[in-house]
Every structure is written in structure tokens, then in C-alpha cells.
Amino acid sequence: MNVQEVRQMFPILHQEVNGHPLVYLDSAATSQKPVQVIEAVEDYYRRYNSNVHRGVHTLGTHATDAYEGAREKIRKFINAHSTEEIIFTRGTTTALNLVATSYARANLGPEDEIVITPMEHHSNIIPWQQVAKHTGATLKYMPLQDDGSISLKDAEETITDKTKIVSVMQVSNVLGAVNPIKDITKIAHKNGAVMVVDGAQSAPHMKVDVKDLDCDFFAFSAHKMCGPTGIGALYGKKKHLEKMEPVEFGGEMIDFVGLQESTWKELPWKFEGGTPIIAGAIGMGAAIDFLTEIGLDNIDAHEEKLVKYAISRIDEVEGVKVYGPEKRAGIVTFNCDDVHPHDVATVLDAEGVAVRAGHHCAQPLMKWLNVTATARASFYLYNTEEEVDVFVKSLIKTKEYFGNVFG
Ligand code: PLP
Q1: Do residues 234 and 219 touch, judged by C-beta distance below 8 A?
Q2: Is this model's pTM higher than 0.85 or not?
Q3: What is the pLDDT of residues 240-260, one digit of tens each?
Q4: What domains can be seen in the chain, in order of their start residue?
């Protein structure tokens, strides 16, 4: 399938914004949705909307099969051993909070350390700050190289036998850096720590194999991978999940309820209190079918080509600084001398080009970069080189608009 055929499947892309064809370069914030996903969600509501795991009626059985079928698709997508290891969550944030609240608070104490990096998204920082507050554990940061990458030597030095948890993003939502998760996991395990991976920016774009990574937990969101908002998943090794307590209590997650005491269902349902996000899970399953059909390797290769092209074209515009290592995923974060990134994004928007500006939920990284904010263009399977050209042309216009103050 070529990129034009892929684009045909995304209705939203075929519109004008501010009088120009939309160039959507904000997929790292949330991706667009193909008709297959939109229709799967609609089909559930139109034809078999019903609660799951409860009634014995036909619609309920259909809904349960579709919901549990989506779990199996996720299992296969990341190559987990069993569906018992796949917990539906609201997204990456909720998944990481589940590990922090249930696993970490129960297993860490004042002598222990948690290791993360300064490039993490707030969702992979604040839950650990909270764990540190509640348990007395220390939160430590692995240093970054000058280009924002992680060196294994630094990882070896920061992770010690005091470390109980290492939590690192696989792909940076700002720098585009692709982190050596498999190697960091080995270092974590050698020291007796568990490895948590924030996969929000990797699962949509590259093949993920949790068995091969050998990580203990892996969190990701459907909305960044062509799926609906409000749904995602936490993978956890069964040996950990079995010992963990639920964090939400109520319907759906119980086995027996007495007046004073209750017991929980087995995995994975003990973590899914209340009516689950049924339509979202079904939509996430459809997104996985869609991505699998296109092929994660093809998506990865397409983005690699696009991002190389984008960087070479941006290099032609004087006064634009690009952040992050040379080898990167489909994310280009940049600043234009003397023009605030919000102004850059506003002028680009007037040209129909959607980019994100701000701190990207990574304030510690902004501090590390010595900036308050940046602009970010992020690419996905539906973006084209022609769109990169429009983006660069609009960047030049931005420069002219601000009286050539940069460059
Ligand atoms: N981690 C990373 C690297 C992200 O890019 C994001 C979203 O931008 C998140 C975590 C949080 O994801 P969500 O808002 O879907 O929970």
C-alpha cells in the first residue's frame, strides 16, 4: 500500500484549514483515525452495544467476545505470553500510575531507589515522585549525553543494587531518541530492579516485543496508534501482576463480596473495576489490525525516510535549531531564533500546518535543553514528502513574517 492509498483511509486529512490543505504534523500528541477504526466503534454502538462479562444474552456475548478479542490482539501485537498480562487502562498515564500505586508503593522503602531519565514525559516522572513521597525512596536521574541520548555506561553507573525500579521511555516524545531498552533492562535485572517502559511513542511506530525486551511492565495508549482516545494498555509480567493489589474497587473486578470482606477476580480482570471502556477497546483492536496490515516495519521505514528528509530541508532554513540525536524516530523538535514557538505554531497554522508548541509535558527536559518551550513536528504513516515541503515553505514564511529576526 502506498502513502496515497493510506491517506484515503483517513477522512480527516481531506480538508482545508485556514484556506489551505491540512498538513497534520502532530501525531505524537494524537494520531488521526482510519475508517476501519471509526467504523468498528460505530458498529459496536449500532449493532451490539451491551455490557461485557455480565448478561448471558446474545448482544452481551458479542460485546464480550469483541472486548476480549481486542485483548488478544494487543497480546499478539506486543508478543506477550498471555492475555492475563494485558490490562486495559485509560492510556499510558493510567498504566504507569497503576504500576506506581500498586507495585511500587507496596515494594519500596526508604533505602530504595527509583531511576528515571530527565527526558521522561511528566506521566513517567510524577507517579515516581509520588512513590518517593509515600515510601521514602529516592528518585534518581540517569544523565543524558549532549545530544540527548542515553549511554549504557551512565546507565551502569546510575543503576545499583539499591535500585528497585527503572522506568524509561522507549522513544522520546520531544527528542525522538530511541532508547536502548533491552540493554537497560539487562542492567536493571542484573541489579535486581524491575524495568518499566513508557511505550507511548514506540508502540505506534515500531515493532515491540515484550518477550525480547524482557521488560517487566510496558505502557501504551491507543490514541497515538490510530485508535480511540481514553483507552490503552498495561503489559505486566504475570509474576508481578499476580502479587499486585487492585487500585480501583467495585463492580466487574470482584469474585465474592461479603459484608466486611471481598475477593478479587483473577488476572487481568482484578485491575478492571467498573464497566470498562468497551467501544475504546474494540477500536484499539481495529487499530492494531490496521497497523498490522500495513506492517510496523513499513511504518518505521516510512517515518525514517520522512524524518531524514525533513531534517535536511529544515537545515536549509537559517536560524532553526533542531534538538535531539541524529538517529531518531519521526519527531523533529526545533526552535527558531528569537521567535517564540507558540508564534511559530500560530503562523504555521495559518498555512494549514498543524505542529505542537510548548513544553510537551517534559518540563525537566526543557530545563535540560535550556529552553522554556519548543515547536515539534511529528510524522506518521500518512505524511508525505510534499507535506514536509509545505511545512518548510511555511517555516520560511514565518521567518519573513517576523522580519527575518532569526537566521
Ligand atoms: N509518555 C509519552 C512519551 C507520551 O508522549 C505521552 C503522551 O503524550 C504519554 C506518556 C501520556 O500518554 P496519555 O496522555 O495517552 O496517557
Answers
A1: yes
A2: yes
A3: 999 999 999 999 999 999 999
A4: 3-32+295-399 (3.90.1150.10), 37-293 (3.40.640.10)
